[in-house]
Q: What sequence folds into this?
């Protein structure tokens, strides 16, 4: 069910651009457009990419950008087939977004094979810049190591020193469990056990009761999207929090908090790379985004915007669609955009920027529908992400 | 105290109960499918979408008109059942003389359209629906904390399942229905309006799906994909129980819920496939299903 359609063509006017300088670029937004991650990536990511192209004034700078999109249905085989077709037949220069870690790992390999560019925003697994790193991969927004260094560390330091994990049974869940476990143990905590649940799931009560029986102080939810929402709802229903255990939602998106409501979610801590209500720049962008997409941007959609912007800057500097030169330029230039501020891209493809530990507001503190989070701490980029030396990315460490 | 494969009995009891709760949803949904298939010979693939619509209608009643959970439990099945009747009259009724496959394709297509429409308007993140105040809180059973609402789910499902079974197998109305399935011309000759009876039966089956949807709204995320996630499992339940067998659908629904629950303790990674493994085994040994007739 490949739905592929050209969504926008920013046609450079032949009158304005000097013909010799015109560069044709096709960007492919590949993500979940109908399943559990559709609200936090989906059409919103396409809108974010379009906004980046418009804000950069690509047409005015002699770059013709065409954006296409497709639904990978969270399935690695579908994702790699689409990526292959895009690179092979449709002339796609770069693939953007790709949430769901298993599909992202597949697309990273296909991109390396075709020597194109992969700017991932949606997927969490830190393996994209560790064992499975590729010279053509840029991992923009967040990763499992950063989530562990945010929520995992904060909860452990606050006295939650025994953990039990509820883990989504695929690449992402296992990476998040592994990275959080490392942080918990490094901070003097202990992991008592874990249970892997099918993805996507509906009923988590059996798994929650197993977590309760473990006697751990903290139940770490190493899952995402609707799975996390259902886990939190059902934990409340079964009185698990009232009985004294603490829930740690290791990956929560603003859309999930909105779906849970402040009544259920209040007090939960979460780690995020972006929140719409941080400063004038993020508010201005989010207002424009919301007018088109209907909801403020998630950190994934914000990452697509910032990644596209940085990519286009590199294209302009290089002056062609030569993927290798573009990636080199992207890593050489400092990243700087209104949503993530200043940062840089490491040799292994990891984008380094600040992360934020946030807390869900109480119903009294929240002034409107989307006024959901307050800042607890800013985690400097250098501390948030795993140091490159510990990641084991072969090509980055070789030279 | 004995331990079974390292699992303490308290935990095991809790898991059995949770299996029964999930089994309640399987039972009500597979019952609706069995009624529709048994009496209309239509494989209703839109059942999952109709279950989702039940949950959404409950949410809409609350948010647009302020009507709460209890009236919704009656109203949502009526509304969704009426939509089902309209579909039956305008489209499905044209397929009775054709092969099963055509009904399956039509209802599958309808399901995709309905889900797509809801996804377009409401997104996939899910909408909140609170547990009614009368059923909040829970009971400490010693071996586990049973939320009152989950207890209510079991009670409501058992009542609905067995009254449906009673109506179809033990009353005069049920006898007419079963007769009309066997020989519609003869029953029509006795002055009974067979097409209307069939239409109402479809509406009733759809209403059962919507009822399950309202039951699910407070505990699962109300989102357009909630039915698609469940419908495949429910079809497996119907196949295991025997297509068209009312009692078979009810008993296998509860039974497989329990088996799935136990798998989640002993081998959680396998809990997503255990029902399909059982289906494969049953089909090999007894192709007509556990409670099916040799037709």
A:
């Amino acid at each position: 069910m490949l739905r592929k359609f050209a969504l926008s063509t920013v046609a450079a006017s032949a009158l304005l651009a000097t013909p010799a300088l015109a560069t044709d670029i096709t960007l492919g937004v590949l993500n979940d457009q109908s399943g559990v991650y559709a609200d936090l990536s989906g059409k919103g990511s396409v809108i974010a990419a379009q906004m980046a192209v418009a804000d950069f004034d690509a047409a005015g700078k002699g770059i013709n950008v065409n954006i296409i999109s497709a639904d990978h249905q969270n399935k690695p085989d579908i994702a790699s087939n689409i990526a292959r077709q895009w690179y092979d037949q449709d002339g796609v220069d770069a693939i953007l977004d790709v949430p769901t870690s298993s599909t992202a790992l597949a697309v990273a390999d296909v991109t390396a094979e075709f020597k194109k560019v992969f700017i991932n925003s949606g997927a969490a697994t830190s393996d994209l810049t560790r064992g499975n790193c590729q010279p053509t991969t840029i991992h923009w927004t967040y990763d499992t190591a950063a989530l562990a260094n945010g929520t995992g560390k904060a909860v452990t330091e606050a006295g939650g020193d025994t953990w039990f994990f509820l883990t989504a049974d695929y690449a992402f869940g296992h990476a998040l469990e592994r990275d959080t476990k490392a942080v918990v143990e490094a901070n003097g905590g202990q992991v008592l056990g874990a249970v892997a649940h099918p993805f996507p799931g509906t009923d988590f009560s059996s798994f929650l009761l197993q977590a309760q029986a473990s006697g751990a102080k903290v139940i770490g939810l190493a899952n995402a999207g609707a799975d996390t929402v259902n886990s939190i709802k059902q934990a409340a229903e079964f009185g698990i929090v009232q009985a004294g255990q603490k829930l740690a939602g290791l990956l929560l998106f603003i859309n999930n908090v909105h779906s849970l409501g402040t009544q259920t979610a209040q007090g939960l801590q979460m780690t995020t790379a972006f929140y719409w209500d941080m400063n004038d720049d993020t508010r201005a962008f989010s207002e424009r985004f919301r007018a088109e997409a209907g909801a403020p941007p998630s950190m994934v959609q914000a990452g697509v915007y910032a990644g596209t912007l940085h990519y286009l800057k590199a294209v302009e500097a290089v002056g062609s669609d030569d993927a290798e030169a573009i990636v080199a330029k992207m890593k050489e230039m400092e990243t700087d955009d209104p949503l993530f501020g200043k940062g840089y891209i490491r040799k292994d493809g990891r984008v380094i920027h600040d992360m934020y530990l946030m807390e869900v507001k109480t119903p009294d503190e929240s002034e409107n529908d989307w006024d959901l989070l307050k800042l607890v701490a800013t985690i400097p980029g250098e501390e948030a992400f795993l140091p490159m030396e510990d990641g084991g990315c072969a090509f980055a460490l070789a030279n | 105290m004995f331990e079974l494969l390292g699992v303490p009995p308290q935990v095991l009891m809790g898991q059995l109960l949770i299996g029964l709760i999930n089994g309640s949803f399987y039972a009500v949904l597979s019952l609706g499918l069995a009624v529709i298939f048994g009496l209309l010979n239509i494989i209703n693939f839109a059942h999952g979408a109709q279950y989702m619509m039940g949950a959404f209608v409950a949410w809409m009643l609350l948010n647009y008109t302020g009507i709460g959970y209890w009236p919704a439990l009656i109203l949502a099945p009526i509304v969704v059942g009426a939509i089902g009747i309209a579909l039956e009259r305008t489209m499905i009724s044209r397929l009775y003389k054709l092969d099963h496959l055509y009904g399956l394709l039509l209802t599958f297509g309808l399901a995709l359209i309905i889900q797509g429409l809801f996804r377009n308007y409401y997104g996939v993140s899910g909408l909140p629906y609170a547990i009614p105040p009368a059923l909040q809180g829970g009971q400490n059973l010693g071996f586990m904390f049973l939320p009152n609402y989950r207890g209510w789910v079991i009670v409501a499902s058992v009542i609905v399942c067995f009254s449906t079974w009673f109506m179809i197998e033990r009353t005069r109305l049920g006898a007419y229905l079963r007769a009309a399935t066997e020989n519609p011309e003869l029953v029509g000759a006795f002055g009974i309006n067979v097409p209307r009876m069939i239409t109402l039966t479809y509406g009733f089956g759809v209403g059962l799906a919507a009822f399950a949807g309202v039951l699910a709204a407070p505990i699962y995320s109300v989102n357009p994909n909630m039915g698609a996630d469940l419908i495949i499992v429910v079809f497996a339940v119907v196949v295991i129980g025997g297509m068209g067998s009312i009692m078979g659908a009810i008993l296998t629904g509860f039974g497989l819920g329990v088996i799935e629950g136990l798998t989640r303790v002993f081998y959680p990674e396998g809990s997503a496939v255990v029902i399909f493994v059982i289906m494969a085994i049953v089909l090999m040994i007894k192709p007509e299903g556990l409670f099916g007739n040799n037709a």
User: Anything to note?
Assistant: The interface with chain B takes residues 34-40, 169, 195-198, 200, 202-203, 205-207, 209-210, 213, 225-226, 229-230, 233-234, 237-239, 243, 255-256, 258-261, 264, 295 of chain A (CB under 8 Å). The two ends of chain A are 43 Å apart (CA to CA). Residues 299-318 of chain A form the longest helix (20 residues).
